[in-house]
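Checklist before submission:
- one chain only
- standard amino acids only
- sequence pasted in full

Submission:
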Amino acid sequence: MSLLSRVSRRLAQLRVAGQLLRAPRSRPGPSAGARRTRSSACGSPASLGAYGSRAPSPARVGAWAAAAVGWRSRVRTWAPLAMAAKVDLSTSTDWKEAKSFLKGLSDKQREEHYFCKDFVKLKKIPTWKETAKGLTVKAEEPKYKKDKQLNEKISLFRGDITKLEVDAIVNAVDGCIHRAAGPLLTDECRTLQSCETGKAKITGGYRLPAKYVIHTVGPIAHGEPSASQAAELRSCYLCSLDLLLEHQLRSAAFPCISTGVFGYPNAAAAEVVLTTLREWLEQNKDKVDRLIICVFLEKDENIYLQRLPHYFPVDLLQPTGPRSQL
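Returned file contents:
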């Protein structure tokens, strides 16, 4: 007999017992021998209801009730695990149902549905404070004051953004994210209609390790970007961060928006990104745990390693000058 069937049967027995306790004793009492026989039989819950107004003791009813409550709690605990083993997000066709299902899972249960096994947990991504240890940069006056707390809120990561287990990753027209998340992401995106340049919208992450995907559209800028294009790029990050707060998310990873086929110069984009993230964190540092700048190319990594110390100052090693020959 299944656990649910046993629980249902026991609850029905308890209802019968409650009715018997409240029922008046209108029938004449049985003989002493019959009482002894029936008293021994009352140890079996299945025999309830066969003895007229004779009911088990309140203590026994209380014990059965406690057992039933315990079984019901175990059912609630085991049910999501059983569902998680049966649902296949790669073949599901209802994005609303899948999205609701994923919200009910723990982080450990969600792992069973990731498109990859080599995902990267947030705690494995070093903070900028950790990355900067041992770096050597040219002496230059930083643009902002040193803030140890902010240096632990920002990270530079080179690798595949689709494998990061964070609350949200930002998608700037990237087909790789759609392929990794599966067709349900595309289905939900169709309901969002279009997204204007500089704006952002949010969907579920589905088969991604990230719980959500924030979609944004950066400006197209071939050559020197204009002031309006810089403002649009800044808006991409700010609108994405607004969604982060709106949905009470604590971690997010950003790609290099607009620097690919959209032609925005890599170094110029980095200045916009670092200024935007620094100023935003100064106002919202207690509302997030980590913002990750995720780069794929070595040249982008080098640009950020050179520029991060000026926006997020740390104690860096200074380059050693030529030694005196005297």
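Reviewer check: The longest strand covers residues 290-295.
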